[in-house]
Amino acid sequence: MLDRLSHVSIVVPDLEAAAERLAHAYGMVAGEILVNHEQGVRITYVTLANAKIELMQPLAMETPLGRFLQRNPGGGLHHISFAVDSVAEVSATLENSGVKTIGSATAKNVHGEPITFIHPKEFLGVLVELEEKPSDLPHDPN
Amino acid sequence: MLDRLSHVSIVVPDLEAAAERLAHAYGMVAGEILVNHEQGVRITYVTLANAKIELMQPLAMETPLGRFLQRNPGGGLHHISFAVDSVAEVSATLENSGVKTIGSATAKNVHGEPITFIHPKEFLGVLVELEEKPSDLPHDPN
Lengths: 142, 142
Description:
2 copies of one chain form a homodimer. By secondary structure, chain A is an alpha+beta fold. The first copy, chain A, has helices spanning 15-26, 64-71, 87-96, and strands spanning 5-11, 34-36, 41-47, 52-58, 76-84, 101-102, 115-118, 128-132. The first copy, chain A, has one domain (5-125): 2,3-Dihydroxybiphenyl 1,2-Dioxygenase, domain 1, CATH 3.10.180. In chain A, 21% of the residues lie in helices and 31% in strands. Chain A has an 8-stranded mixed sheet with strand order 2-3-4-1-5-8-7-6. In chain A, 46% of the residues are buried.
């Protein structure tokens, strides 16, 4: 059900500076900067061989992401995301296990794909995102 | 250089309870529990299609992991780990970029493979582990 990691997400205070830091120090190249107004966030991705790193900068401080940044001014790990075939089906299966997903049933990621979240209390203290078939999920070439 | 995610690591207060929770609610099966006395931690892994989830329970509270647990009693995301061909070579390359790795030069993970860490201040607020060729790193079958 949750057997494929899509990405690890990091909140940063300055997206351009974060991308520049990863490029300069680690040779990691971030893609174009996308804006998800619904989620209130600017986003870019570093594509690895087998998953992605998501960098997120909140558009406003009075949002959950903005408050995360207030608690972690330098940035930090925010959530992990699994790729699933159907967010609706996995959500229903989880509901049967007593795990409620959170967020709007029509929520979409920056690529327009359905997403939902599992509250940290339900997953060992970790915020978990479910993404429906991320179209550009890298496949491991090895 | 850092293009392959090995695992995402979660600190938990009770390893058996965490494994049971993942199995019951999500159908995720954790492997055997291993003990890394050098790192002061009990560990188990959930193997996904393209990476692993590491669950860690500190052996003592007066350790960095124990203090993390004191700050996050329910557990939480602790670090991400990249698989690299040579920890020594990557460490030297990073040093040339002005990024110091931390920890003993002879540190090993629970599988006996060389590891090192990059301080969160060097990587967008995220603690990063480098692991040398994890022998059981799953390959994406797709």
